[in-house]
């Protein structure tokens, strides 16, 4: 069995359906495939996203996939100091990824793309030394899908990027292990997301409570994946220490999150790599949905141009544009992550204490310059040459 399309998109997470939708809208034939029998299931995500993405990436604000609107965040230091950032307006939402991902695929289908679940890409097809398509299994039956452009949006492992000869290797230290319960939990303001930091709490990462209801939340953790202990160990320890019974668990999710090691070559010949497959994730908080949407938007623009002008080499502009914009920004964030990895619990305590008195709007906006200046004015910071050196390395 063989099929022919202008574009085949492998993976219906966040990036894949947006590429498929945008390219189909431009009038090209697109096939979006996903190996799972139900798109969006199981989720591997804390499900929080900024309110800005809906308008920016032309996604309907549909209550069917929005569990809860969020008005800010609360950060907790190792010794229990708190920093609260609360806004009058909605700043983000907690999604239901199982519904959201499926709806993104639905929008792609509505725009004219064909969508097939339970279809797993296994290899690329090479003809005369060039990649001409992919081999896949659709409901267990082998199928060959020929396409002018192949999009690898198949997640962290990305079979297709690897088979196409794109170097997606990153050392284990550039990944986080995450473990999450969707569970009943009481006592946390459901209008905010909650984040706990500390080397004993979550080495290099944090514990999160992302409310989905007044008394239901995603409660999870991310830690460096080369840690000798597991993410589950640290999460269970945190729940126990905070007397939170883990007896009403609705779901358990495990995942690997790239937090560095961005793929340098985002387009090779007629193969384009987007989203987690390209490590397009914020290294600081491990969020990848917004990054995937952005990369998908840039990639689809150049795919359309390449097809319109019948010039596949135009795909190289995706690599160039992403690295000049998002790539540059995420490299800076990676630098911040590498510095925060060196912070002691005492540093974290002091920083959260100082910042709770500083302008939290600027902190929330990610204006690191202002944050660092606020920290550098504090006596406890000034008295430590090590802290000064760490902070100055960020300026």
From TrEMBL:
Binding residue positions for FAD: 15, 34, 45-46, 48, 97, 121, 276, 288-289
UniProt entry keywords in alphabetical sequence: FAD, Flavoprotein, Lipid biosynthesis, Lipid metabolism, Oxidoreductase, Phospholipid biosynthesis, Phospholipid metabolism
Domain Digeranylgeranylglycerophospholipid reductase catalytic: 176-257
Superkingdom of the organism of origin: Archaea
Record Gene3D superfamilies: D-Amino Acid Oxidase, subunit A, domain 2, FAD/NAD(P)-binding domain
GO terms assigned for molecular function: flavin adenine dinucleotide binding; geranylgeranyl reductase activity; oxidoreductase activity, acting on the CH-CH group of donors, NAD or NADP as acceptor
InterPro entries per UniProt: DGGGPL_reductase, FAD/NAD-bd_sf, Geranylgeranyl_Rdtase_fam, Geranylgeranyl_reductase, GGR_cat
Reactions performed catalytically: CDP-2,3-bis-O-(geranylgeranyl)-sn-glycerol + 8 AH2 = CDP-2,3-bis-O-(phytanyl)-sn-glycerol + 8 A; 2,3-bis-O-(phytanyl)-sn-glycerol 1-phosphate + 8 A = 2,3-bis-O-(geranylgeranyl)-sn-glycerol 1-phosphate + 8 AH2; archaetidylserine + 8 AH2 = 2,3-bis-O-phytanyl-sn-glycero-3-phospho-L-serine + 8 A; a 2,3-bis-O-phytanyl-sn-glycerol 1-phospholipid + 8 A = a 2,3-bis-O-(geranylgeranyl)-sn-glycerol 1-phospholipid + 8 AH2
Details of cofactor binding: Binds 1 FAD per subunit.
E.C. no: 1.3.-.-
Binding site for a 2,3-bis-O-(geranylgeranyl)-sn-glycerol 1-phospholipid: 329, 365
Record GO biological process: glycerophospholipid biosynthetic process; membrane lipid biosynthetic process
Cofactor(s) for this UniProt protein: FAD
Pathway: Membrane lipid metabolism; glycerophospholipid metabolism
Additional comment: Reduction reaction proceeds via syn addition of hydrogen for double bonds.
Family listed: Belongs to the geranylgeranyl reductase family. DGGGPL reductase subfamily.
Function: Is involved in the reduction of 2,3-digeranylgeranylglycerophospholipids (unsaturated archaeols) into 2,3-diphytanylglycerophospholipids (saturated archaeols) in the biosynthesis of archaeal membrane lipids. Catalyzes the formation of archaetidic acid (2,3-di-O-phytanyl-sn-glyceryl phosphate) from 2,3-di-O-geranylgeranylglyceryl phosphate (DGGGP) via the hydrogenation of each double bond of the isoprenoid chains.
Protein's UniProt name: Digeranylgeranylglycerophospholipid reductase
